[in-house]
Amino acid sequence: MNSAIENERLVTVQIVNAFVQDGQGGNPAGVLLDADGLSDDDMQTIAAGMGLSETAFVSKSATEGFKLDFFTPNRRIPHCGHATIAAFSLLLQNGRVGDGETSKETVDGPRKIVIKDGKPFMEQLAPRFADPEAWNSVTLADVLSSLSLTEDDLDPRAKPSRVDTGNGSLQIGVKSDALLRALSPDQDAIAKISAALDIVGFYVFTTDDAATPHDAAARMFAPHYGIPEEAATGMMAGALAGYLYERVGIRKPHFVIEQGGYMDPPSPSLLTVELDLLDGAIQGLMAGGSGKVMDRRTVQF
C-alpha cells in the first residue's frame, strides 16, 4: 500500500485547491498519491469520507505518465478538471513531474498533460454540441424553470447547448452579472435534467463586464453528482471556451474564466483555456491553472 496509509483501513489524503488566484480561493479536491491496490469500492468510500466535490486517486500506469481515477462522494466520473490540476500540482510539489509534457490514463482513455511555468494544463477533446431541439425528453423551458429564468434573461447571441469535451454540461449564457448572482437553482430539477441528458451539470455564465474583467464569469451546479455548487470546474470551463468561440463568435484562441465568486462564502477561481485551432476549427483544447496544498485529512475505509 501507499506510504500515506497508516494502517490497512486508514488513509491520509491531501486537500489541494485548484485554480487558485494569487494562492487564495480555488476549488478543493482530495488527492491520494500511490493509490495502487485500492479497489473501486475503497476509492468510493474514501471519496465519500472526504466529502469534497471530487477526489483523485493517482497510481502507476503501464502506458501513460500516471493513472488517475476520479470519484465524487456518490459515484465515479471519467474526468475531473480541478482534481487533475490538483493532482499534478501535488506531483509537481513533490518533485515527481516538472515543466514539460506528461499524460494521464483514465477510464475514458489517455489525455495529455502539459506543465507550463509551474502550472498544469490538461487536454480535452474538441467540443461536441447538441442544441435544445436534440434534447429529446428535456425542453429549454424545463431548463429555464429549474433556474427561475426566462428566455429574455438569456444571452441573445447563442441558445443554451449541451457541450461535451470529455464530460457533458449545459452551457447557459445570461445577460448580466445581476442575473447570474441572483440565480435560484432548483437542485432536484437540475439533477433530473442532468441525468436525462447524461451531463455532469449546468454551467451558467455571463460575459457582462460588470461581472469580470476576464472573458466570462460562471457558476457550476452539479447536484446529480452530489455537488450543489462548485468553485472551479476545468472540464466545463474548457467546454465554455469552445462554446464562446463556436457559438457566441468570440474568435480567439485564449480564454480566462472566473468561477466561485458567487458562492457563500466566495472562493474565487481563475481558469485558463487554450484552444488548438487549425484553419479556424477547434481540434482540441488545454485547460489549466495553479494549485496549492491547503490541508490533509485522514479517512477510514
From TrEMBL:
One GO cellular component term, please give it. cytoplasm
Q: Which NCBIfam families does the annotation name?
A: PhzF_family
Record Gene3D superfamilies: Diaminopimelate Epimerase, Chain A, domain 1 (3.10.310.10)
From the Swiss-Prot or TrEMBL record, give the protein name.
Answer: PhzF family phenazine biosynthesis protein
What SUPFAM superfamilies does the database record attribute to this sequence?
Answer: Diaminopimelate epimerase-like
Which InterPro entries does the record cross-reference, listed alphabetically? Phenazine_PhzF-like
Alphabetized PANTHER family for the sequence? BIOSYNTHESIS PROTEIN, PUTATIVE-RELATED, PHENAZINE BIOSYNTHESIS PROTEIN
Residues in the active site? E54
Q: Which family does it belong to?
A: Belongs to the PhzF family.
The opening ranks of the lineage are: Bacteria, Pseudomonadati, Pseudomonadota, Alphaproteobacteria, Rhodospirillales
The domain of life is Bacteria
Q: Which GO terms describe its molecular function?
A: isomerase activity
Any one Pfam family here would be PhzC-PhzF
Give the UniProt keywords, A-Z. Answer: Isomerase
